[in-house]
Design goal:
73% of the residues lie in helices and 0% in strands. It has 9 helices and no strands.
Length: 201
């Protein structure tokens, strides 16, 4: 491959393939450069360090989760319906990644664990998506919470078992969907009664 044809996207594609083969512990920038048949110095023109390259890999992986979810935010339908669809889609996307390629999922999870800033930005993005849905529900008086952002953070935390990679080993359990349904009913009560309770305090 010539230097002219090299782009950040092609480097990330190569990095993903090399990570798939060798895992995050053994993969180096030199390995990625060798796969692309370029010098490792060429890669550094696009990514100044191994950490920067790994962060970019993690960011792209997380974006593949966040992008489809953003469509739910602007969808038609009630806020409650969109919130439920949002979480259903989030869980579906995560489970697909585990089932389709568990080793690659573990690799990405390990990389994301190291890319703390990237993960934090991703979580902020997801919580902002939830905040937008909740804000629309407050505006239509469908939801009774007083602080959309705090409600979004609480909702995200309450459901963490169903979408955080650390719990991936639980997602194939036969009761996982029923467990989510029970949690959802509880958080739903909080979303529609919070303001009423506050008025009586």
């Amino acid at each position: 491959m010539s230097d002219v044809a090299l782009t950040p996207e092609r480097i990330l594609d190569a990095a993903e393939e090399v990570l798939r083969r060798y895992g995050p512990a053994k993969t180096t920038v030199v390995d990625v450069a060798r796969f692309l048949e370029v010098s490792h110095g060429t890669l550094y023109r696009h990514f100044p360090s191994k950490a920067a390259l790994r962060d970019a890999v993690a960011e792209r992986w997380l974006h593949r989760v966040a992008a489809p979810l953003s469509a739910v935010v602007t969808d038609q339908g009630s806020a409650i319906e969109r919130l439920h669809c949002w979480f259903e889609l989030l869980m579906k996307l995560k489970r697909q990644k585990v089932l389709d390629d568990p080793e690659l999922f573990a690799t990405y999870a390990a990389i994301a664990e190291e890319a703390r800033d990237v993960v934090q930005a991703h979580v902020r993005d997801l919580i902002q998506q939830l905040t937008q849905i909740i804000e629309s529900g407050i505006a239509s008086q469908e939801l009774m919470v007083t602080d959309a952002h705090e409600a979004a953070k609480a909702l995200f935390s309450a459901t963490v078992r169903f979408h955080h990679p650390v719990h991936a080993h639980e997602w194939s359990h036969p009761s996982i969907d029923a467990d989510f349904a029970h949690v959802w009913q509880l958080v739903l009560v909080g979303l529609i009664t919070d303001r009423a309770n506050a008025l009586h305090e």
